[in-house]
Every structure is written in C-alpha cells, then in structure tokens.
Design a protein that fits this description.
Blueprint (H helix, E strand, L loop, with lengths): L4 E10 L18 E10 L2 E7 H4 L3 H4 L2 E4 L4 E4 L1 E3 L11 H8 L4 H6 L3 H11 L2 H17 L2 E7 L6 H14 L5 E9 L10 H19 L4 E6 L6 H13 L3 E6 L7 H7 L4 E4 L5 H8 L4 E4 L1 H6 L8 H7 L3 E3 L13 H12 L3 H7 L2 H6 L17 E4 L6 H4 L6 E6 L2 E5 L7
Helix pairs in contact: 6-7, 8-9, 10-11, 11-13
The structure holds N-(iminomethyl)-L-glutamic acid and fe (iii) ion.
C-alpha cells in the first residue's frame, strides 16, 4: 500500500461528477467545478473530492504525500476513445501527394493508404511494433491522456490482426489503460481483391471466432463507407461480432452518408465515429439512441478538408457527443487530444466546457469505462491532470501547445514537466 496522495489548492478542479449516463444536450458543458479544490487518492482510487479546506483536514490527508496545485486547473485524464495506436511507419508520401491535390480515396486506390500501412505492419516484428507503440503511448501521456482505445485493422490477416490485438492487450496498464478493438473489417486485403463479401465471410467464419476465443478485444469495428464496406456487409459482420460477445463500433459517415450511422443505432452500437457526412434523419436517430456520436476533427484537419462533423446540430438534437484523436498515420497523425479539443471549439463550435466533457466522461462511456474513469469522483481511479493554466478555457484557446504540467494514472505520476513536485 502506497501512501495516500493529497492534491490541493486547485484554482479550478473540474470534477465532471454527476449522472451515470453519457452527457447530452444542455448537460454536456456541466463540468461541476470546485474552486480551490482538493482530492484524496488512496491505493490509486479517489476517496474524497471537495473544497481544499475540508479535504486537507481529513485524518488520511495529514499523512498523505502532497501535490500543491495552487493557481492551476486539475481535471480528469483524457479518455481517447478512438485510436489506431499500432501502425508502423508514417505515410509521408501520402501526405505530400494530398498537398499536391490528390484525395485520400485516390491515394488508397493507387495502393497507398491503409494497404501501405498493412504491408509494413505485416513485415514488422511484434517487438518492433510494441516498441513504437510505447513511444506513442509516452507522447499521449505527455499530452494528458490516461486511457485509450487501440484498434487493430492494419494486419488484415488472421495472424497479424491477432498479433496487433495481443500487443495492445499486453501494453494495457504499462503506462495507460488500453482497450483493444478488432478492426479486421478496415479495408479488403489483397488476398480478397474484388471480393469484399468473401472477405467479410472469412472474417465471420475464421477470424472472429479466434478473436473472441482469445479474449483479446472488447469491441469490433468496421469502416462502412463508399470505398470501404457496404451497409449490408457491415450489418452482417457486426451482427456476427455481437453474437461472439463483442460490442459494436462503426467508422460511419466519414466521407459519404450511406446509412452507417442509422446502422449503428439499429445494432445498438456503443459508438458511431466520424459523422462528418451525417444527414438530418441520422442526426435525429442517433440523438434518440444510446449510441455515442464520437467526433474526430483531427482527421478533417489533417486531410485538409473543410467539412467537420455537425457537432452543434448533434448536441442540440440531444446526442451524446464524445471527442477523440483518431490517432493514425493516414488521416490523423497526432496523439494530442488537446489539439482535437481546440479544433472542436474553433471549427465545430463546441464550447470549451462541452469539448472537455466530450474528451473525458463521454469518452469513458464510449469505452464502457465510465465507472472507472472520465471524472473525479469517489471510487473512480485517480487518473488526473494538472494544467499550467488558471482557467480551463485556455486549453483550447491557446492552441497547438502542451498545457499539461503533470499526468497521473491510478495515483502514480506518468508524466511531469518538471522534477516531480510531490512532497
Ligand atoms: O479513422 N477511414 C478509415 N480509417 C482511419 C484511417 C486509417 C488510415 O488511413 O490509416 C480513420 O480515418
Ligand atoms: Fe479511425
């Protein structure tokens, strides 16, 4: 048992305490701020949160290690609910080609894109992939993330997909909490060229049973769009995945509205992610459902596009909106959820409070982890950040820089910008 940890003096402690369901509409911006806030963490778990003068006087607080957050913001660690963590090399040729005018779809059709990454990942050793992933994880921790989802989807054959999921699972708890997602239905691999139905059948017959039996993924995801899998293929695949006990997620309406968001609602998917092209009936359907609308503005920004997801319409319709990085080498090579928050505010007109709630408590809901993380509440893990700012609105306002002074997961410091100031 380590000594308790007392965090005190925070100018703004963003607790995000409250409802046990995802935040929607007018509830989204409620950060439940405690001014001059404090928190006590024992054995990695929060035991008390409240005003400093009360928490400091608790018997356990008097013998605790102390973290003085005077003048600063303390908030929950970010929950990045959509990443393609393990991915091989950067796609710099794709990036330059796009700058010179070629589209994401054209580059993919010419053999670049996801298939480029697939070839590199298949040729890479598990050790090398894990070492590279650890470097990305360290960057995420530096930028304030404490929990992530990690998708497969760059192996596209049984052995490599399982290898990616096993790496993600093995890295869980090393520095961050990691939830693996099986994205075998990312694109059609060369072995099934021209036969997407055959590949989906192969996934259902051969790969899904292995993934389920190995217990290496919590979620199954499919990229359902023009240029990827059709609605019928996605429905068949996710229905089978659900029968195997996986929970559903969908890359939906990223480039075209083909009904993927409505499919997410129909299948009671945990989340529908992207939604840049979502139509009005689908906005209403998702707002009436329990499916979380996970928005990924980093991919729009990096692709140099202008159509961001209609965050305001989704929020005003009553949808539960989450925000994530979509960290991947093709469309969003940034581990910084702070950047995603800035983009959400300036490009999608989410308020700073809405964006912060979407990247913490609603991200936790999108991973089925809201009882463990996403807010600063008794009985949740002591996963929190100290920011180098006195007001949380500076986080998106002053964009493109790192505001994190310290990242703590389960009561242990995983990043600190100075020598560890815990006394
Ligand atoms: O979320 N569009 C599908 N999947 C990813 C991109 C993956 C890649 O280009 O490597 C996305 O944007
Ligand atoms: Fe993605």
């Amino acid at each position: 048992m380590s000594k308790p940890l007392l965090v005190h003096g925070a100018r703004q402690m963003l607790t995000l305490r409250g409802a046990s369901t995802p935040r929607r509409g007018g509830q989204l911006p409620d950060l439940s701020i405690v001014e001059s806030g404090a928190m006590l963490i024992e054995d990695g778990v929060i035991t008390h949160v409240g005003p400093s003068r009360r928490i400091e006087n608790l018997a356990a607080a008097r013998k605790a290690r102390e973290l003085d957050a005077t003048g600063r913001v303390v908030m929950p660690g970010f929950v990045d609910s959509h990443t393609h963590l393990i991915h091989g090399p950067a796609r710099l040729a794709d990036y330059e080609a796009r700058i010179l005018g070629r589209s994401y779809a054209e580059i993919a059709a010419a053999g670049g894109g996801i298939r480029f990454t697939m070839r590199a990942v298949r040729a890479s050793s598990a050790k090398r992939l894990a070492t590279e992933a650890q470097a990305h994880i360290a960057t995420m921790a530096r930028y304030g993330t404490t929990t992530i989802e990690a998708k497969s989807g760059y192996g596209l054959d049984e052995a490599t997909e399982l290898r990616l999921l096993r790496i993600a699972k093995a890295l869980d708890g090393d520095m961050l909490s990691i939830v693996p997602t099986f994205l075998g239905a990312h694109v059609v691999p060369p072995e099934f060229e021209g036969d997407p139905d055959g590949y989906i059948q192969h996934l259902i017959d051969a790969v899904l049973p292995r993934v389920a039996a190995a217990k290496v993924a919590r979620f199954a995801d499919v990229y359902c769009d023009t240029g990827a899998f059709s609605l019928a293929q996605a429905r068949r695949y996710l229905t089978a995945a659900i029968e195997y006990g996986l929970e559903a997620k969908i890359h939906a309406s990223q480039f075209a509205e083909i009904g993927a968001a409505a499919l997410a609602v129909e299948l009671k998917a945990v989340s529908a992610d992207h939604l840049e092209a979502i139509g009005v009936p689908e906005i209403e359907a998702i707002a009436r459902s329990a499916t979380i609308a996970t928005l990924l503005p980093g991919s729009v920004f990096h692709l140099g596009l202008t159509r961001y997801a209609p965050a305001r319409k989704l929020i005003e319709a009553g949808a539960a909106v989450a925000l994530a990085t979509d960290y991947n080498p093709g469309t969003s090579p940034s581990c910084s959820i702070q950047m995603a928050i800035s983009l959400a505010c300036t490009q999608m007109r989410m308020t700073p409070a809405e964006a912060i709630a979407a990247a913490t408590i609603n991200g936790a809901h999108a991973l089925g982890l809201a009882e463990q993380c996403g807010s600063l509440e008794t009985a949740k893990y002591g996963d929190f950040l100290v920011l180098n700012v006195p007001d949380y609105r500076e986080l998106p306002y002053s964009f493109g820089i790192n505001h994190v002074a310290m990242t703590v997961r389960h009561g242990e410091v995983i990043y600190c910008d100075k020598d560890d100031p815990i006394q």
